[in-house]
């Protein structure tokens, strides 16, 4: 889905942004007729409230106060998308503390519709790019987000490992990248044993999807969990827990969104994208609790829960990605419920031992309204993932520190100097401004914003 600003040169109606702390700064400058209309309707700049002005006078859009804007990001931009059919242009300077980028990006994101299975009327309001914003950059953000949302929202019947591979190939064709795939039993012969183990019970063959782009600059490897549906395997999930498992490839969807941003912006780097794509199903040849497997890097893993499968497929992909010794490796996965308990659904927790990378991500997240939070690679918990009978345990007992122990598990396979792991949710549970219920991108704008700093020589 292309999310774009209105074409230059279109006839526009004015939008007046009104801060609810100082509404008279704008309202007092209106014509008598329009000011009386605003007074009659009780418009005082409330966040997200709009008021169309008579005689094609444009519209008033409330941007609230700094406090309300913090609590409800994208509200003003989403409100613009709900205006009557016309092309609009913001005409007044933003009050101090208001963010033109956030308003403009909120408008673009609010124009998203997932209409593959049902017609969804799109907004008819068109917004000219506000002055001072980098319109191509924001359109890039929005297009990447639309890709991520579409992938997560599509049910597993239509977004299995084969369809996910085709999406990668379509993206590669768009930007001149290359794609290679290792599939089915070839995973065993080419030393991706854990990817094969998790996916072997499904009708749609497991695979490792590999995309490469760029020939100059730092080497950046992105690894995304592509579990297209997760039944839990023989440790079968209850029905209530299985209902959202089409989103268990949210890590892959977010990585592809980030890859799209990088390629569309022509970031100078050597990009390497790895997606282990599987379905964790149940059949006579499904892997079992108590089994022990040897991963690509030689570490043995005891299976104590077949529902902790994401870290297994990521382990082989991380080990493979590490062999090229990239300058930076990023892993994204819808990995643990423990991360949701820790920070809720809206924040993308991340792990890294790299202090400059952590600082850059935290600063970037605030700039692009993409909240992240650093959690610790707590070394004393390493003993929790060592079962004794094998090198590693895929599901430590006890229920404590589940996100941290999963991150520590993955770190054993990421043999690179700069590594970050994101344990994301990838789902918006209820409609919010510019973020409809369904799949959502998390952490990717922050990562993209931080890239120039962390990749600088």
Commentary on this structure:
The protein is α/β, with parallel strands linked by helices and 457 residues long. It has 16 helices and 19 strands. Strands 6, 7, 8, 9, 10, 13, 14, 15 and 17 form a 9-stranded mixed beta sheet that branches. The radius of gyration is 24 Å and the shape is elongated.
How is this fold's topology laid out?
Layout: E1 13-19, H1 24-27, H2 32-40, E2 50-52, E3 59-64, H3 66-71, H4 75-81, E4 86-90, H5 100-110, E5 125-127, H6 135-153, H7 161-175, E6 178-183, H8 186-189, H9 193-199, E7 207-213, E8 219-224, E9 226-230, H10 239-242, H11 250-264, E10 270-280, E11 292-294, E12 300-302, H12 310-322, E13 328-333, H13 337-343, E14 348-352, H14 355-367, E15 372-374, E16 392-393, H15 402-411, E17 419-423, E18 427-428, E19 438-439, H16 444-455
Parallel strand pairs: 1-3, 1-4, 4-5, 8-10, 8-13, 9-10, 12-16, 13-17, 14-15
Antiparallel strand pairs: 2-3, 6-7, 7-10, 11-12, 14-17, 18-19
Helix pairs in contact: 4-5, 5-6, 6-11, 9-12, 11-16, 14-16
List the main descriptive attributes of the protein structure presented here.
alpha/beta, 5-stranded mixed sheet, 9-stranded mixed sheet, 19 strands, 457 residues, 16 helices
């Amino acid at each position: 889905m292309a999310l774009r600003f209105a074409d230059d040169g279109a006839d526009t109606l004015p939008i007046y942004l009104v801060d609810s702390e100082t509404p008279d700064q704008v309202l007092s400058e209106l014509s008598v007729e329009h000011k009386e209309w605003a007074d009659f309707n009780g418009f005082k700049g409330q966040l997200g409230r709009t008021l169309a002005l008579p005689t094609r006078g444009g519209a008033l859009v409330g941007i609230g106060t700094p406090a309300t804007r913090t609590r409800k990001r994208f509200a003003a931009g989403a409100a613009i998308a709900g205006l009557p059919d016309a092309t609009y242009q913001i005409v007044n300077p933003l009050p101090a503390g208001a963010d033109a980028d956030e308003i403009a990006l909120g408008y673009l994101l609010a124009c998203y519709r997932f209409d593959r299975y049902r017609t969804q009327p799109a907004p008819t309001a068109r917004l000219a790019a506000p002055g001072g914003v980098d319109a191509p950059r924001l359109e890039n953000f929005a297009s990447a987000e639309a890709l991520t949302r579409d992938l997560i929202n599509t049910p597993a019947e239509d977004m299995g490992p084969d369809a996910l591979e085709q999406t990668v190939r379509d993206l590669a064709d768009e930007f001149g990248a290359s794609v290679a795939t290792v599939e089915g039993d070839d995973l065993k012969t080419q030393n991706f044993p854990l990817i094969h183990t998790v996916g072997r019970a499904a009708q749609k063959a497991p695979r490792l999807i590999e995309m490469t782009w760029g020939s100059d600059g730092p080497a950046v490897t992105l690894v995304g969990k592509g579990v297209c549906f997760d039944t839990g395997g023989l440790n079968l999930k209850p029905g209530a827990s299985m209902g959202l498992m089409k989103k268990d490839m949210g890590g892959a969807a977010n990585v592809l969104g980030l890859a799209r941003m990088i390629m569309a912006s022509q970031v100078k780097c050597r990009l390497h994208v790895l997606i282990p794509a599987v379905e964790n199903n149940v059949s006579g040849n499904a892997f079992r609790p108590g089994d022990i497997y040897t991963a690509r890097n030689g570490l043995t893993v005891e299976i104590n829960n077949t529902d902790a499968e994401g870290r297994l497929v990521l382990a082989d992909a991380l080990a493979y990605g590490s062999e090229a010794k990239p300058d930076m490796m990023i892993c994204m996965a819808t990995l643990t419920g423990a991360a949701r308990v820790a920070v809720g659904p809206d924040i993308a927790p991340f792990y890294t031992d790299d202090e400059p990378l952590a600082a850059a991500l935290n600063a970037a997240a605030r700039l692009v309204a993409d909240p992240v939070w650093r959690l610790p690679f707590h070394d004393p918990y390493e003993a929790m993932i060592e079962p004794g009978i094998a090198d590693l345990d895929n599901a430590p007992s006890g229920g404590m520190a589940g996100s941290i122990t999963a991150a520590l598990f993955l770190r054993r396979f990421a043999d690179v100097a700069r590594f970050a792991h994101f344990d994301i949710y990838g789902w918006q549970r209820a409609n919010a401004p510019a973020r409809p219920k369904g799949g959502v991108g998390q952490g990717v704008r922050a990562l993209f914003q931080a890239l120039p700093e962390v990749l600088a020589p």
